[in-house]
Amino acid sequence: MSTKKLSAGDIIESRCTKCREVLNHRIVAMVEGKVVRVECNTCNGVHNYYPPPTAKEAKAPRATATKARATSATPRVSRKDPVEAEREEWASLNPTFDLDKALPYAMDGRFQVKKLVLHPSFGIGIVKAVIVPNKMQVLFQDGVKLLRCQ
Questions:
Q1: Which of 20, 69, 115, 145 is 20 to 30 A from 8, alpha carbon to alpha carbon?
Q2: 3-class secondary structure, 24
Q3: 11-15 and 46-48 strand pairing
Q4: How far apart are CA 17 and CA 3, in angstroms?
Q5: Beta strands 46-48; 34-40: pairing state
Q6: Is 66 helix (H, G, I), strand (E, B) or coil?
């Protein structure tokens, strides 16, 4: 089977930008043997050449991925809401709080991890982490807050 070399004026299939379909087009311009511009035989629109999409080959399924999905009998477990997890942590720690040892919160105060803090707006909290520079994460009943510290 011999293939004819394309030249200007020949008919070729191309994706039409107006019709949005693969239709017959007439070659208008070529550069170095490549089709550059075409004219649609249906709508007479002149546009750049867009080759028709090629058929994609179906990939062979990987045996390990298919086997893992088929053999996993455990149902999917949704992740816990982070806010809900913080509330559960607060509920578990709350009975162990000794309110007499809570330090009143001040922006220029120094705080340590696992120490209680009494904040005027958020109430009682426990320091989860001290972050440099001058910040700490405190778990309150409403959730984790980032506060300034020394």
A1: 20
A2: strand
A3: unpaired
A4: 27
A5: antiparallel
A6: helix
Cα 11 from chain centre: 44
Q: Decide: 53 and 15 in contact? Cβ < 8 Å.
A: yes
Rounded CA separation 147/89 (Å): 19
The one-digit pLDDT tens for each residue of the chain (150 residues) are 557 788 888 999 999 999 989 999 999 999 998 999 999 999 999 999 999 888 777 776 665 555 555 556 777 777 778 888 888 888 888 888 888 889 999 999 899 999 999 999 999 999 999 988 889 999 998 889 999 998
The pTM of the full predicted model, rounded to 2 decimals, is 0.46
Q: Assess contact for 7 and 36: CB atoms under 8 A.
A: no
Task: Supply 60's token pair.
Answer: 């062979």
Report DSSP state, residue 99. G
Report which residue type is found at 27: I
Rounded Cα gap, residues 124 and 139, in angstroms: 9
Strand ordering across the sheet containing 103-104: 103-104, 116-119, 123-131, 135-140, 143-148
How long is the chain?
150
